[in-house]
Amino acid sequence: MPDGMLTYFLDITESYGRACAAISCKLALPSAHSLDPSGDMELKKQYFPEGRVYAAATIYE
């Protein structure tokens, strides 16, 4: 049984955040999100109010 749900996104939109929240809720799993660290991380974090958000390696790394 999984301990949680992990996502990785390069480009973030509000709809991705809503979809992740819905899936996490439906599966009753905590979520963690790895995001491309380029750009405004605080802005990106607002799309994922639930779950943990981490800056991950860029696609080039």
Topology, element by element:
Elements: E1 5-9, H1 14-27, E2 31-35, H2 41-45, E3 52-55
Parallel strand pairs: 1-2, 2-3
Report what the structure shows.
The chain is α/β, with parallel strands linked by helices and 61 residues long. Strand 2, helix 2 (41-45) and strand 3 (52-55) form a beta-alpha-beta unit. The longest helix is centred in the middle third of the chain and has 14 residues, at 14-27. Strands 1-2-3 form a three-stranded parallel sheet. It has helices spanning 14-27, 41-45, and strands at residues 5-9, 31-35, 52-55. 11% of the residues are buried. The protein starts with a strand and ends in a 6-residue tail after the last strand. It contains two helices and three strands.
Strand order of the largest sheet: 1-2-3
Write down the Rg: 11 Å
Percentage beta strand: 15-25%
The overall pLDDT average reads: 84
Please tell me what the overall shape is. globular
N-to-C SSE series? EHEHE
Strands, total number? 3
What does this entry show, briefly?
This protein is 31% helix and 23% strand.
Supply the key terms:
alpha/beta; 2 helices; 61 residues; three-stranded parallel beta sheet
